[in-house]
Amino acid sequence: MARDVDPKKTRKALRIIRKLAAKSAAPETIDPETGELKPGEGAVDYSQWESEFLTEVDQRLEKYGSAFRDLSKGRKEEALSNLQTVKLKEIAAKARGKKRKGLTTKKPLGWKKRPSARP
Question: Residue 38 sits in which domain range?
Fold first, then answer.
């Protein structure tokens, strides 16, 4: 039983993924003067996992119109699961040059007004 996925959302996800994949490192080139292989100069140096993620999600969207099967992981009419959307946003932030935010602790309310525990 095929799932009805909004084609607009599928096209949007494909456009974002292909745009990010295009920003990855260019293939190696051969220097015409020396004949040496030079590494490609791309805007973003993705990790191996990120590159595989982009290609696999692109393939699933092309083939099925959706990149996930388990409906507990996302909405029925969406093309990407919730976690895939989060990871895609992280990769997009990396492509823009923003550093990944780590885990931060929140200070409790009223922490400035409390007297210090140390004498």
Answer: 7-96
